[in-house]
Design goal:
Blueprint: E1 5-9, H1 13-24, E2 29-33, H2 38-51, E3 56-59, H3 68-77, E4 86-90, H4 95-104, E5 108-111, H5 116-131, H6 137-140
Parallel strand pairs: 1-2, 1-3, 3-4, 4-5
Helix pairs in contact: 1-5
Length: about 140
């Protein structure tokens, strides 16, 4: 999994730190994004994808400027990103939120856990699911 890269979009800095620590337990690289405006986050994605395309994108739902649902729709309608699996990772337990996200193209809908131990289990599962067969970035250049 040395070449595996995940992108995480969340407005909560503490959540970003915990998620990064959770994935680092399994040797995964994570790029963190805090949304500011819809246009700029897609520009940032485009610039980053040219250098290091991710194996998975993780989106929080409740964010300022652009919700995770809105960003999901934009990503799935953009040919540059539609092939990348997207996991919704949120505090929401709403069945309606889950159904809306799945209909919009999310590959998975997960509720944020209460403990770091639970988070690392999720990170382990996601790394197994989305990183098998990942090519090392160094070899791909």
């Amino acid at each position: 999994m040395p070449g595996c890269l995940f992108w995480v979009v969340d407005d909560d800095a503490d959540d970003l730190v915990l998620i990064e620590q959770g994935f680092s337990e399994f040797g995964l690289r994570v790029s963190m994004f805090q949304p500011d405006r819809a246009g700029t986050i897609l520009d940032r994605f485009e610039a980053e994808a040219a250098k290091n395309p991710p194996q998975m994108i993780m989106l929080d739902i409740n964010m300022p400027f652009i919700s995770g649902k809105e960003l999901l729709v934009l990503l799935k309608s953009d040919p540059r990103f539609r092939h990348i699996p997207i996991v919704m990772f949120t505090t929401s337990t709403s069945h309606q939120d889950k159904m809306e996200c799945m209909r919009a193209g999310a590959n998975c809908f997960l509720t944020k856990p209460a403990t770091f131990t639970e988070l690392t289990k999720i990170c382990d599962s996601l790394s197994t699911l989305f990183c098998s067969g990942a090519v090392s970035v160094e070899r791909a250049r």
